[in-house]
Amino acid sequence: MKSFLKGTIVCLGLVIVLFSVASCSLLYKKFGGDFEGPPEEMNQNISPAAKELIKQAFQGFEGKKIVDIHSHIVGLGAGGTGVMINEEFNSWWHPYKRIQFKIYLSATGIEDVERADQEYIERLVRLIKASPEPMNVHILAFDKHYTKEGSVDLKRTEFYVPNQYVYDLSLKYPQIFTPVISVHPYKKGAVEELDKWGKSGVKFVKWLPNAMGMDPGDESLREYYLKMKEHDMVLLTHAGKEMAVEADRFQKLGNPLRLRLPLDLGVKVIIAHCASLGDGVDLDNSKTDKKSNFDLFLRMMDEEKYKGLLFGDISAMLQFNRLNGPVKKILARPDLHSRLINGSDYPLPGINFLIRTKELLKKGYINKEERAALNEIYSYNPLLFDFVLKRTLRHPETGQKLRAEAFTSPF
Ligand SMILES: [Zn+2]
Predict the structure, then answer these.
(1) What is the per-residue pLDDT for 274?
(2) What's the predicted TM-score (pTM) here?
(3) Confidence tier at 317 by pLDDT (50, 70, 90)
(4) How confident is the model at residue 252 (pLDDT cuts 50, 70, 90)?
(5) Model confidence at 24, in pLDDT bands (50, 70, 90)?
(6) Residue 71 CA to ligand 1 centre (angstroms)
(7) What is the CA(72)–ligand 1 centre distance, in A?
């Protein structure tokens, strides 16, 4: 274990040196967005086998709209969008974050930072439209970090995407975008803000408690939850460990059991990534014993009273660091598939080193021919790649696949 850790640190050091010294766009490409050409050129250039895999992926929906419940809007605030990112991402004093930032940029296909926000949207729209059947993509606003007292903490804010921006985008592209607002419950006037969006017809609210600082189990949030229920709003919230957050006091906010409060009040909750990373205290039974967050999520999914209320999104579950347990367990539970919802976590599927088809092949989730076809699709359309991969994936022993109902909206 120790030598593994040492190895990781040395590796990370090496990567930082490589990127810092060379600042080489080829390296960013290798780790980030390793694309061959624009999405519109995919059909002329991919093999018959890749086309066949795409065709199969779209079968079984009987005219139902395919949904992507979890797709990020990012940017740099270009053109007055109001989007903000933490300045550490572009600082040489924070080499790891700077590299992360450059890899992200390369994965999103942004070339001109002066038009970053516009290019991001243009590319996302093109990726969606180049798919044989354009999906309904839920685009996420992202609120700042707030303290319990209601003041904003910009140092802890990783990025900020305003609700109005996301809402306006959904008006501009009503066929493909559904807005997901983000209202921090500790913010002054949070309930009124929810009410305003609820009256505008917005149905989804996004939280990332570990990064934003809210405790979903906080009793003072009752009024907020009841307002959500009044407008039949669904809470899409991250649970489990969050890689971008270091402090333990914030990691514990990702404990899925803290979501019992909104669920018991009758609020619909989607747990992002099915809480598939890290451990949380088993608050139902103990003050100290830890269990995997994913098992705590499954425990709640199995409770009769949460049927029709609790759901899980399958975004990011195929990243190399989550492949060992959760995916297999999810595949083995077709009885739960109608309560799973497809999510891409875009732009993450564009990041080459996060989703490794080699590992998926090695673990028996896909075969050699499928891997080759999937890699071809990735190099033109990472969003389509993510969908076709999830449709192709099978349980290594039983062959069970994710049912089609996990790709359409239950709401
Ligand atoms: Zn996400």
Answers:
(1) 96
(2) 0.91
(3) confident
(4) very high
(5) low
(6) 7
(7) 6
> Distance, CA 44 to ligand 1 centroid (Å)?
32
Give me 73's structure tokens: 């809007």
Which amino acid belongs to residue 193? E
- As a three-state string, the secondary structure of the chain is CHHHHHHHHHHHHHHHHHHHHHCCHHHHHHHCCCCCCCHHHHHHHCCHHHHHHHHHHCCCCCCCCEEEEEEECCCCCHHHCCCEECHHHHCCCCHHHHHHHHHHHHHHCCCCHHHHHHHHHHHHHHHHHCCCCCCEEEEECECCCECCCCCECCCCCCEEECHHHHHHHHHHCCCCEEEEECCCCCCCCHHHHHHHHHHCCCCEEEECHHHHCCCCCCHHHHHHHHHHHHCCCEEEEECCCCCCCCCHHHHHHHCHHHHHHHHHCCCEEEEEHHHCCCEEECCCCCCCCEEEHHHHHHHHHCCHHHCCCEEEECCCCCCHHHCCCHHHHHHCCHHHHHHEECCCCECHHHCCCCCCHHHHHHCCCCCHHHHHHHHHHHCCCHHHHHHHHHHHCECCCCCCECCHHHHECCC
For residue 75, how far is its CA from the centre of ligand 1 (angstroms)?
Answer: 15
- Contacts of the segment 120-127: beta carbons below 8 A, 24+ positions apart: 120/73, 120/74, 120/75, 121/73, 121/169, 124/71, 124/346, 124/383, 125/173, 125/176, 126/38, 126/39, 126/40, 127/39, 127/381, 127/382, 127/383, 127/384
> What is the C-alpha to C-alpha distance for residues 310 and 400, in angstroms, rounded to an integer?
23
C-alpha of residue 160 to centroid of ligand 1, in Å? 13
Cα(347) to ligand 1 centroid in Å equals 9
Amino acid identity of 270?
I
Residues near ion ligand 1 (Cβ under 5 Å): 345
Q: How far is the CA of 149 from the centre of ligand 1 (A)?
A: 26
